[in-house]
Design a protein that fits this description.
The complex is a heterodimer of chains A (about 425) and B (about 160). Chain A has helices at about 1-30, 40-45, 185-195, 420-425; strands spanning about 60-65, 70-75, 80-85, 95, 115, 125-130, 135-145, 155, 165-175, 180-185, 200-210, 220-225, 235, 240-250, 255-260, 260-265, 265-270, 270-275, 290-295, 300-305, 310-320, 330, 340-345, 350-355, 360-370, 380-385, 390-395, 400-405, 410-415. By secondary structure, chain A is mainly beta. The termini of chain A are far apart. Chain B has a single domain (about 20-155), classed as Glutaredoxin (3-Layer(aba) Sandwich), CATH 3.40.30. Helices cover about 45% and strands about 20% of the residues of chain B. Chain B contains six helices and six strands. Classes of the chains: A mainly beta (about 425), B alpha/beta (about 160).
């Protein structure tokens, strides 16, 4: 019954999507006479007789389980779907719809559905649903306790329901099962604007669940005046607490990065500034940071992008739990558009990945340190594409390190980047 | 069902066509645009997903009202699927008669590169094209006085 009902909802929304896509394609053709009707992929995705596939998804997220199963969350036509692969993304299970009632889902660049697992088979999914007003949205959450066969009715995690921004959520699950969500929130900005006061940017809010996502604690604010359109990054530490990194606004308009760690789930420490590039701009960079925490040394490995006149490009920095920071190291080729970095650490190894573009090809780059970020091997280009790509994300299972990279031509890829692969590509 | 799909497609196509969708901006559009617009002109890249861009459009609307000779082209980095939202916002900002384009669904990297390899996608991003064919790029919300004084020096 559950399956039938899910399929029914999916079909209805696919019909709507099909009509919309067909409408837009025909329109574009009619209006300009130069645009081809939707390509093969869109036609396949719009086929109401077929389940959508990962190929239809604009911005997926994935994570490995302890057993090496790859779980992917993605969205298409008003639904978040979860599917899995037991053969490293060669084949996938049929997708399961997370939200039975279709809703808008933010899935482009900095925004995408997120997926995280706990140690006991719990699967957690979050996403942002845009609301009617521009730049407004709610943070949505759902879980599965039956190995992804079905998902709980989605809940809204932000406890302020003003039609304003509660977006760019980041999802982290600690080893003890605590679930953390942090996001950019404009409730205070709305309040200020109603009182005819100026409020720059958004605020960073968070909440957490200690019962597997059935209930979330009251939302708490971490800081006012974050940048408002860059993704937020999260990882969890040995004490089962989150560490969050985001682009903040310092002073009038300096968009550098900040980090917060916690003394307890309800006790965020004072945020620390982690980048000092002084990018002063009243703009949307659409370019958020990343973090990976070392299990052994408990150090934070951070990457970010800035575009200040003097200090620009991609940067890596290491920070210990007492907030002692290493000197940032620039990586990637700024002149080749190095962008959208990802970082991952395992043992004493640290991987960096990013994208570059030479005017024809987008390339995926990796750089590896085998001494905890102290020194770095040569950067290696490990994949290319010519027709556009999503951001790249580093990830690992018990045996190896991979990059998720979805490209228009090649589709969803899981690229192995074990040390031998990187060395061979150098 | 197929009949319904066709009818709906035609309906949607009529609705969007009637609302005068912005022209599609492709990888070779910029070079042609520089010829067609006959510098000096101002090209502003923006997106529906960018809060400062909305302020920028409102500011440009005020400048345009006071200076109807403003040679301006607006390029949205959104997709043609959002043509209605784009048109609505331009109308609200008093910019519905301005030359408006929207990114094609070619790779965003390719489109950005065709305009400026040194542009990392931050928005708004403005290009002041001078008569001598040089240009100056500025990231972030423009100061209205800057636009007006540029206009005084670079009146078409």
């Amino acid at each position: 019954m559950r399956v039938l009902s899910t399929n029914f909802n999916m079909k209805i929304s696919n019909i709507i999507a099909g009509v919309l896509i067909a409408g837009v394609a025909v329109t574009a053709f009619a209006a300009h006479g130069e645009r081809k009707p939707s390509g093969q992929l869109s036609t396949k995705c719009a086929d109401i007789n077929q389940l959508p596939t990962l190929d239809c998804a604009p911005a997926p997220s994935s994570v490995f389980s302890h057993s090496g199963r790859l779980w992917v969350a993605w969205s298409y036509a008003g639904h978040v779907y979860v599917s899995y692969s037991d053969d490293k993304a060669k084949t996938f299970s049929l997708p399961v719809s997370v939200n039975r009632v279709p809703e808008k889902i933010s899935a482009r660049g900095e925004n995408r559905p997120k997926i995280a697992l706990n140690n006991k088979g719990g699967i957690y999914v979050s996403w942002t649903t845009p609301l009617k007003k521009r730049f407004s949205g709610n943070v949505r959450f759902s879980y599965s306790n039956n190995n992804g066969k079905s998902f709980s009715t989605p809940i809204t995690v932000n406890d302020n329901l003003d039609i304003t921004g509660h977006r760019f959520e980041a999802l982290g699950v600690a080893d003890n099962g605590n679930i953390y969500l942090a996001w950019l929130d404009k409730r205070d900005r709305l309040k200020a604007e109603k009182a005819a006061k100026k409020y720059h940017g958004a605020a960073l809010y968070y909440s957490w669940s200690e019962d597997g996502g059935k209930n979330f604690h009251r939302n708490q604010k971490i800081i006012d005046h974050s940048c408002e359109c860059c993704r937020v990054a999260i990882d969890t530490d040995k004490k089962n607490l989150p560490v969050i990194v985001w682009r903040n606004i310092y002073g009038k308009n300096t968009r550098d990065h900040a980090l917060v760690n916690f003394n307890a789930p309800d006790k965020p420490a004072k945020p620390v500034r982690v980048s000092f590039d002084n990018w002063q701009v009243d703009a949307c960079p659409h370019h958020g940071p990343d973090i990976s925490i070392s299990d052994e040394t408990e150090e934070y490995h951070l990457v970010w992008f800035d575009n200040a006149e003097k200090r620009h490009g991609l940067f890596y920095m290491r920070m210990d739990k007492n907030n002692k920071q290493s000197a940032p190291i620039a990586f990637g080729n700024y002149k080749a558009g190095a962008s959208h970095p990802s970082v991952l650490t395992k043992g004493n190894k640290v991987w960096l990945s990013w994208k570059e573009f030479d005017g024809k090809k987008e390339s995926l780059w990796v750089q590896l340190s085998s001494d905890n970020g102290g020194s770095w091997g040569k950067a290696a280009s490990i994949a290319e594409t010519t027709a556009g790509s999503d951001y790249a994300f580093l990830m690992m299972d018990a045996h190896g390190v991979y990059i998720q990279w979805k490209t228009t031509q090649e589709g969803f890829q899981l690229i192995n980047i074990d040390e031998s692969v990187v060395k061979a590509a150098q | 069902m197929k009949v319904l799909l066709v009818i709906c497609s035609l309906f949607f196509s009529f609705v969007i066509y009637a609302s005068n969708a912005p022209a599609v901006f492709k990888t070779d559009s910029y070079q042609q645009l520089v010829v067609d617009k006959n510098p000096p002109f101002l090209m502003v890249m923006w997106s529906l997903d960018c809060p400062p861009c909305i302020k920028e459009l409102s500011m440009l609307g005020s400048v345009y009202k006071a200076h109807p000779d403003l040679n301006l082209v607006l390029v949205s980095t959104d997709s043609i699927a959002r043509a209605d939202d784009i048109n609505q916002l331009l109308k609200k900002s008093g910019l519905s008669s301005i030359d408006s384009r929207v990114f094609s669904d070619a790779s965003v990297q390719h489109l950005r590169y065709a305009i400026d390899p040194a542009w990392y996608g931050e928005l708004p991003r403005s290009y002041f094209h001078k008569q001598d064919k040089t240009r100056k790029a500025i990231s972030g919300l423009l100061d209205m006085n800057l636009v007006v004084s540029w206009l005084k020096v670079n009146s078409p």
